[in-house]
Amino acid sequence: MSGEAKNGNGAKPHITVRDLTMAYGTFVLMRDLNFTINHGDVFIIMGGSGCGKSTLLRHLIGLNEPAKGEILYGDENFTKADPVQKQQMVRRMGVLFQSGALWSSMTLAENIGLLLEEYTDLSPADIREVASLKLALVGLKGFEDYYPSQISGGMQKRAGLARAMALDPEILFFDEPSAGLDPISSRLLDDLILELRDSLGATVAVVTHELASIFTIGNNSVFLDPESKTMIASGNPKELLAHSQDHRVIRFLTRAEKESP
Amino acid sequence: MECSGDAILVRLSGVWRLQGGLPSDATVRQELERSPRPARIAFEAQTLTHWDSTLLTFLVAISALCRQRGINMDRAGLPAGVRRLLELAEAVSERKGARKEAEEASLLERIGTTTLGATASLAEILAFLGGMTITFIRLFGMKARYRASDLFLLIQRCGAEALPIVTLISFLVGVILAFVGAVQLKQFGAQIYVADLVGIAMVREMGAMMTAIIMAGRTGAAFAAQLGTMKVTQEIDAFTTAGFSPLEFLVLPRAVALILMMPLLCLYSDFVGVLGGAAIGVGMLDLSWTTYFRETTNAINVTDIAGGVFKSSVYGVLIALAGCLRGLQCGNSSSAVGDAATSAVVTGIVAIIVACGTFAVIFYVLGI
User: Fold this and answer.
1) B interface mutation test: which of A26, A103, A156, A173 has the most B CBs within 10 A?
2) Most C-beta atoms within 10 A of its C-beta, which of A79, B64, B195, B317?
3) CA quadruple B100, B103, B104, B107: dihedral positive or negative?
4) Last residue of a domain, one of A134, A163, A192
5) What is the CATH number of the domain that holds B8?
6) What ranges in chain A are assigned the alpha helix state H?
7) How far is CA B25 from CA A96, A211, B20, B100, in A?
8) What ipTM was assigned to the predicted interfaces of this complex?
9) Nearest to B332 by CA among A54, A179, A162
10) How close does chain A come to B353, measured CA to CA in Å?
11) Do B35 and B129 reside in the same domain of the chain?
């Protein structure tokens, strides 16, 4: 690893975003995004509603193409990779979509099993066993044969997490994990995210605007501002709250209770 | 309303309710716009008994006019609630660009936009067809990945479960054809040729066409709605990020199911249609069952049947592709799912009719 690729703490960058511009057609959503996510980080992508947080996540997982700039995973250039390489890189990621996005025509076990079937040589019995284990990890033991429509929203989200973890990914992405959950379920999900980060050694990137989650789990972040169409702060959210000089960041992190630093 | 020198006093009274309609602010407006310009406007609301948004709308309009003309608006006479709401309504200045431009686009501009849109959608359709061609090639190379259980379920859905409606429609089409023929042929005493008419029409054209139109409405719309909903719930994104191609995993089994089931449904429809014709022939024209069927078998040959069956298979591909394309193009809301289903049926039926015309020309040239 070259000296330039290391940051102050000596941690290795896992994801590097350089000069990223996101656009829909000619409409520019965000420009000049530059940040790194280190190994083992819980990285928060925050900002007001509709500012492009989820779109940034879609860029990171390859669902949208950058209008400009590039995204690197370790030393590999994700943006310039050919489709086969890209596919291999995506396989090392797990994604929990906003509504869980479980495949509705399959049971929970099949949802998880499908990935194992495709990318491993496990026998059907073993696949089922692994799927049960993943479900047990998110507290859904015994729900293997339920269809997504038969369980509650919170359970769907946890099942989505189990599916995201199916192939033991190096990076987990979460799109608004606490949206639509009650405070307690949301808290449990936060704990689960931290637990997984610690036990799997994965890097976690979370899109959220829940302050409670931001301060509980995040140790690094980027703040997107829709007015200036770029990022206006980055770093540990707690430090941002304590030291940021930008009133927009402070307003956001204090629910507008403190107007200026 | 009272006017004294440069001041206006507006006396508000009675009941202001939305049910009564918005009151006109014309008189106040007139006073405010007169010259010399009044310096201030005040309100008195002692006899005001009930108010709601009508009063606020009225006051917001006056307030805007006052600001524009630099007239002092004295709000002290208004009820406290009204004052607070008025402040709230005026607290945030209008967000720039939030208001949609209502201006009418010029004809040239509209033609340009439509052309660009058409080009983009053509490119999308070509990309989809290209992707599907590759997917089918992978299927024949046994490399395509899809769930066999999905395919069986789809075959059941668009095969066996479509039988009742296909039966009903085909029988009635047979009956209609027989009636149309019977009226004309009876004049020449040639009732027996009703069997030829019904047989040839059903087997060569109507069987395939009616099944196709039924399936476009029934299954094409269902495909579009399913895929559209999966798009809204991000299930399709989940497939992509898991490394599965939605074309292989979702579109392919649907296309295969329809390609396999359409010929069978078409054969079945041919048979039921002839049966419908026979019901009229036997019931109304005093033909015997045996005569009718002997006449039918003489009239049609294997080429006719094969032609119809082949056409139905092509229609099946068109229906599946139209349904899936519109589903995958679906936007991100529940109304978009409805649009996708509608659009799938329209696209499917247009494609069927165009293909039918093309086949008619080709078959004529080839002399089939």
Assistant:
1) A103
2) B195
3) negative
4) A163
5) 3.30.750
6) 53-60, 83-91, 108-119, 124-137, 153-164, 183-200, 211-217, 237-243, 247-253
7) 55, 47, 15, 26
8) 0.84
9) A54
10) 33
11) no
The DSSP H or E segment spanning B173 is helix B163-186
* Domain boundary, last residue among A163, A185, A212: A163
CB atoms inside a 10 Å sphere around CB A127: 20
Report which of B166, B149, B135 is spatially closest to residue B272, judged by C-alpha positions. Answer: B166
Closest CA to B224 of B345, B96, B74, B76: B345
Record the pTM.
Answer: 0.79
- Assess contact for A206 and A193: CB atoms under 8 A: yes
Domain count, chain A: 2
Classify residue A259: in a domain, yes or no: no
Q: What is the per-residue pLDDT across B200-214, written as a single tens digit (0 to 9) for each?
A: 999 999 999 999 999
B237 neighbourhood in chain A, CB within 8 Å: 58, 63, 97, 101
d(CA B167, nearest CA chain A) in Å:
29
Q: How many structural domains are present in chain B?
A: 2
Instruction: Note down the domain range covering B274.
Output: 121-366
In which domain, by residue range, is A143 found?
100-163
Pairwise CA distance, residues B15 & B129, whole Å: 65
Q: In chain A, what is the straight-line distance between the N-terminal and C-terminal CA atoms, in Å? A: 38
Q: Which residue of B has its CA nearest to A167?
A: B242
Query: Do both B280 and B183 map to the same domain?
Result: yes
Confidence tier at B1 by pLDDT (50, 70, 90) = low
- Domain assignment of residue A21, yes or no: yes
Say if B210 falls within a structural domain: yes
> Both A32 and A151 in a single domain?
no
Indicate if A140 and A225 belong to the same structural domain: no
Q: Look at residue A4 in the predicted model and tell me its pLDDT.
A: 39
Weakly modelled stretches of chain A, pLDDT under 50: 1-8, 261
Distance from CA of B19 to the nearest CA of A (A): 36
The H or E element spanning position A28 is: strand A27-38
- On whether both B156 and B270 belong to a single domain, the answer is yes
Q: Do B244 and A119 touch (CB under 8 A)?
A: no
